[in-house]
Model the fold of this input.
Amino acid sequence: MNPDPAVNSAASLAPRPRARGVKRTALWVLGLAVLAVLPYVASLHDPLIYDDRTILDNRWLVREAGPVSVFQHDYWYGTKHESSDLYRPLTVLSLAANGRIATSREGFRVVNIALHALATLAVAWMLVSLVSRRAAWIGAAIFAVHPLASESVLWVVGRAEIAAAILGMIAFTLFVKLDGERGPGGLRLTGSVAAFFAALCFKESAAAWIAIGAAWLVVRPRAGAVSMRVVAVRGACYAGTLVAFLLLRASVVGWARHDVPFVDNPLVAADAITRAANAVLLFGRYLLKMVWPGTLTVDYGFDQIRVEPILPWAGAVAVVLVAAAIATVAALFRRGRTSAAFMVAFLPCAFAVTGNLAFPIGTIFGERLAYTPLIGACGLLGLALAAVPAALLRAVTLAALLVAGGFRTAVRCGDFKGAAALSEATVAASPRSVKALYNAARTRLRQGRAQEAIPLLEQAVAIWPDYAKARQLLDEARTGASSGADDEGR
Done:
């Protein structure tokens, strides 16, 4: 013991490493939350439009939906889309509670933005269990401002994606932490399974976390020996949870799948092999959007993204992409870079349900569907930047990415200022989507701009002559333009 009391006093006043670590973590948490919120502040007062308005203008949702009744009806119950095959009881319960506590549009948007901030923190928490702390914070920061996540935040109904991602990350992270336990897992396994079930109840696509978990089992570091019996017990718990959810879902919406409109997903008209090849090509398109989200739109339907035939090149390109993904994972795994190998595998696994591979979904391509897969891309980028040895270069690069991403996200928020703004932004970004052309023309027609609606409808009919809705609206627009010309003549 040092006999000098002055020295002892000075030592007692020195900051402890643990305290410094807690303070640093608190600052990172605050910083990530601010990053996630800041680009969306300007959208707080934006009106609720399209699907948001449809589901929220629902007497049953606002007055009767409760913790039990939401499990007894389909997602669109009480609206014009009632009797759908979508089943998201906890999303409906969330919207109902939101509508009773904070009824304004600002109230709904605050919840979505807060959920995105929470998702950003969940990304950091999940990545910390897989990669270095520095890589985890960097990856989460990029996720916070990434423009491809904006559609899920800006649509109120997009909270289904966000909440399912949060709960999926909780379930997966607890699953990863089970690696240090020899037994099945007890409370940690119970919490993981419960979070997985809740994620499914927010959106069915959370089933993809089964594939993500399987990928982790294949590439994870073999630090501790876990018996196959324990792995089988844990796997049975997750599989049983998925089966239980599917049975509950079937009891409400049945097993049959409703017809998907061709205008939303032209892959419904393709054979299984052609659809699978195009699903791989779509995966490549998602990756490009993650790298360069310059053009963003809410509509990629017919004929914005064309269905490519197997020959002469679509099949070959699809095979090359699959082979490249497998080879990349294998090469990283052999070099002992298991975290990077898992992040690469995470990307296709996260699209296991929404990628149009096993079956056609309601849309050929949707930016909101990339919310969970984006975690893998941001994790990879976090790993890459964390490996940069020069601290200044690393900081400058990260700052540039955050400023660029935040700015693009803020600009994207401007597209949601109203139905007219969104329809015009959509048709500008998707000029070959007949649905985007139709919606923009209909908006112009309602504004008394019949003459400006006609070229859009003529283009829609030229792309798809059998689009009856566009033909009918074109006749109305021409009649309206003619009447307007007669009125001006008088």
User: Anything to note?
Assistant: The first helix runs from residue 5 to 13. The CA atoms of residues 74 and 87 lie 5 Å apart.
